[in-house]
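User: Second chain of the day. Same drill as before.
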Amino acid sequence: MNILKELFNKTVDKFTENSITSSEARYEVYLLIEEVFGLTKKDLVINPYQEVPEDGVKRFNSFVKRRIEDKVPVQYLVNKAYFMGQIFYVNENVLIPRPETEILVEETLKLADDRAKIIDIGSGSGCIAIMLAEKLLQAEVFASDISEKALEVAKFNAEKLGVADRIKFLKSDIFEKIDPSENFDIIISNPPYIPVKEKEHLQIEVVRHEPEMALFTEDDTGVSFYGKLVNQAASRLNTGGFLAVETGIFQAEAVKEIFKNHGFKDIQIIKDLSGIDRVVIGKIIF
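Assistant: Same format as last time:
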């Protein structure tokens, strides 16, 4: 007999024994239970001693094995990640959306009016562009990425969440292949910002499974992409337009200087919930 609560507790213990923190382990097991048995966290609270079917347990245990032995992030196992209350399809062609990026979107929403023209550079799963399109009903939203496979994921998510007809998807390295006549009110990006030399210090799950192109830069400080992005963005923003980017730890001040050197004004640095400088926003006034 397979009892839900026993399966939950046993799997959390397995994950923590394999260097997954207790809070992460519990979250991941909830995701697996939801995927395999269709049961939510609430179901586990209300009826913890319900029996779960043997065939489901076999599938569940196969996921657990891959999580532990192959270090596959649970979001890739179930092809699902939560972002700003929505469920996004993810696979190994796109980064797993993080809570820090929700702050980038929330701060951008404070700046945007409903008819803004916005482009998301390096769109990945499409989570940024899609949430902006969902919240700004009259906005003109573009999503670009250098990876065709990432764009396929973004398009799928846009269809699933009902905003595909309001987002234009473009394959481009920053603005390289975007019509030079296209200017924007807001440019937003969560770019690669981890120096490749830091790879050995990252979680093995990240290094082994998330797309390197979306993570790493070749320079020692991780700010090389910002230099290219800010340089190109300065000439692609309408007067009064904003550039908003996510940054890695200890990078915000350096990125702020890059903004300054390219004529941006009213530059803000916003902290994440851990008190880390996480978002830099600047304005073009000429």
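The chain has twelve helices and eleven strands.

User: Great, on to the next one.
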